[in-house]
Each structure stands twice: as C-alpha cells, then as structure tokens.
Amino acid sequence: MLLVWRPRHIRRLLSGAVARPFLAKNHLPSRSGVLMGELRRRLRAYYGNRAPFPHEIGFVLGYPIEDVDGFMSNGGQGARACGRWKVYGDVDEALRRFKELELEELRIKRLYSEGTPLRGLLRMATA
Questions:
Q1: How many Cα atoms sit within 13 Å of 31 on the Cβ side?
Q2: Cα of 68 vs its chain's centroid, Å
Q3: Which of 52, 86, 99, 127 allows an S-S link to 79, with CB 3.0 to 4.6 Å?
Q4: How far apart are CA 63 and CA 41, in angstroms?
C-alpha cells in the first residue's frame, strides 16, 4: 500500500466541525502530522498481523465521516448503498462522488499507460 497525502488537505479535514468528535471517539490525534503518523502505525500493525484493519483511515481518504463511522459502528452491515465505500449517509452525494472518482481513476490509468511517471502523477495531484 502506498499512502500519499497533502498536508493542506489533512489540515482542512481536521478543521471541520465533525472531525473532533470522530477523532476523539477513535483515539486519534488532531494535529495533521501526528495523525498521519498514528495511521501509519496502525497500518503497520495491520500488515504485521497485530491489529485489525484501521477503517478510520477512510477519514483521511476523504470518505464522509458519517460513512466511516457508520461502517465502523455497524461492522459493515446495513449500508444504504455500496460503491467505493459503504454508504450510511447521503446516498445521492456518494453516488455522484463514486462516478467522479471512477472518471479520475480512468484518467490517471490512461496517463500512466501513456508514460507519465508516478512522480508526475503525484505532482499533478498537488497542483
């Protein structure tokens, strides 16, 4: 797994009103660098067969908090819709985002197959 993030994006996520209760509930720090370090630690524990998968990582991947929290609270059961993630909140918005992500993935795959190196793709993401 390769996890690349934009500090500005993480800081923006952390500034949201619903972020603090979610972070507290999941014993996560509220400073961006510390948060990403903790998620890295949790991923390493998972890949080292020492812990379950840290589904709370969905928060920094941009999944809606209500969907991440709903998945974690319900063990993945009872979702209202399913696509790139399981939806427990706004289905219409999630379906729109699924389509948007699908189109972006196709664009990135095309660029990569045409020879754009990974470094170039990552630079595009920060523009």
A1: 3
A2: 9
A3: 86
A4: 20
> With contact defined as beta carbons under 8 Å apart, do 56 and 39 qualify?
yes
Residue recorded with tokens 């985002």: 97
Q: Give tens-digit pLDDT for 13-33.
A: 999 888 999 999 999 999 999
Query: What are the b/e assignments for 73-86, b being 16+ CB within 10 Å?
Result: eeeeeebebeebbb
CA dist., res. 82 & res. 43, Å (int): 23
User: How close are the terminal C-alpha atoms of the chain, in Å?
Assistant: 23
User: For residues 119 and 121, what is the distance between their CA atoms, to the nearest angstrom?
Assistant: 5
Phi-psi region of 49 (alpha: psi -120 to 50; beta: other; left: phi over 0): left
CA–CA gap between residue 97 and residue 90 (Å, rounded) = 11
Q: Could you report the per-residue pLDDT of 76-127, keeping only the tens digit for each?
A: 999 999 999 999 999 999 999 999 999 999 999 999 999 999 889 888 865 5
